[in-house]
Design goal:
One of its GO terms (cellular component) is cytosol. Its EC number is 2.7.4.25. Residues 6-223 form the Cytidylate kinase domain. ATP binds at residues 10-18. With 226 residues, the chain is an alpha/beta fold. The protein is 48% helix and 18% strand. It has nine helices and ten strands. The protein has helices spanning 16-27, 34-47, 58-63, 96-106, 109-122, 135-139, 153-166, 173-189, 211-225, and strands spanning 5-10, 30-33, 51-52, 55-56, 70-74, 80-84, 87-88, 128-132, 145-150, 202-205. The strands form three sheets. Strands 2-8-1-9-10 form a five-stranded parallel beta sheet. A hairpin with a 2-residue loop joins strand 3 and strand 4. Helix 1 (16-27) packs across helix 9 and helix 2 (34-47) crosses helix 4 (96-106). The longest helix has 17 residues, at 173-189. The protein is globular and about 50 Å long. The protein starts with a strand and ends with a helix. Bound molecules: cytidine-5'-monophosphate (C5P). The site of cytidine-5'-monophosphate has 14 residues, from helix 2, helix 4 and helix 8.
Length: 226
């Protein structure tokens, strides 16, 4: 069997990573959450006071990239977690503070080149499911399967809100929805590799689909190609 490259792009909080993870597990492929890498880069910039809600020090962020070492390591349960300079930052990168700053860092061309290079290496041998915003367009334009995920914004906000509340965050549904809308706007209108639905992507609207139903759909798409 040929090892495929599978690209999953789409709007924020659409369940891209959930599907990518399930698909990778089923196919015994590597799963890469590219958004986590941007979140790691944003966290590093935040810790050095180079980005906040209304300020981004582009030049110093670029200069500090040589100090940013991003990697993934599986935890005891086999779940991939993000490491920044050798420290597990999986929890920290999911906070609303990082969510509110990440798009300002992700729009910087040099940040993207820095991370895209690493992402391409992770997928160099195929057998990878990567989710993000520019995977089918920029990172793996030759991916055999490209999925574009979308869902109703209210449903997305509610899902993300439930997730954050479950992990103990103090946050309102309105804050979560505002963040999704703002990120979608920034990610789809930026100059450098904006979020777009490429022509050869297959759309999955999962507003009314369970994770299991999405996996079934995705596996059917894989079967067609293999
Ligand atoms: O996927 P996730 O929502 O965690 O991504 C966080 C942010 O990282 C996105 O809102 C976007 O700004 C950026 N991102 C990106 N390109 C990717 C993945 C994520 O610009 N491939």
């Amino acid at each position: 069997d040929k090892e495929l490259t599978i690209a999953i792009d789409g709007w924020s909080s659409c369940g891209k990573s959930t599907l990518a993870k399930a698909l990778a597990k089923e196919l015994n492929y590597v799963f890469v959450d590219s958004g986590a890498m941007y979140r790691g880069a944003a966290l590093h910039a935040m810790r050095n006071n180079l980005v906040s809600r209304n300020h981004v020090d582009i030049n110093r962020i670029i200069a500090s990239l040589s100090d940013v070492k991003i990697s993934f390591k599986n935890n005891a349960k086999g779940k991939a977690e993000l490491y920044l300079n050798g420290k597990n930052v999986e929890k920290e990168i999911r906070t609303i503070e990082v969510s509110n700053s990440v798009s300002s860092v992700a729009k910087i061309k040099e940040v993207r080149l820095f991370l895209v290079k690493q992402q391409r290496i992770m997928g160099i041998n195929g057998g990878v499911v990567m989710d993000g915003r520019d995977i089918g367009s920029i990172v793996f334009p030759l991916a055999e399967l490209k999925i574009f995920m979308t869902a109703d914004p209210d449903i997305r906000a509610q899902r993300r809100y439930d997730e954050l509340i479950a992990q103990g965050d103090k946050i309102t549904l309105e804050e979560v929805k505002a963040n999704l809308i703002e990120r979608d706007e920034m990610d789809s209108t930026r100059e450098e590799s904006p979020l777009t639905q490429v022509d050869d992507a297959i759309v999955i609207d999962n507003s009314n689909l369970t994770p299991e139903q999405q996996l079934v759909k995705a596996l059917a798409l894989v079967k067609k190609i293999k």
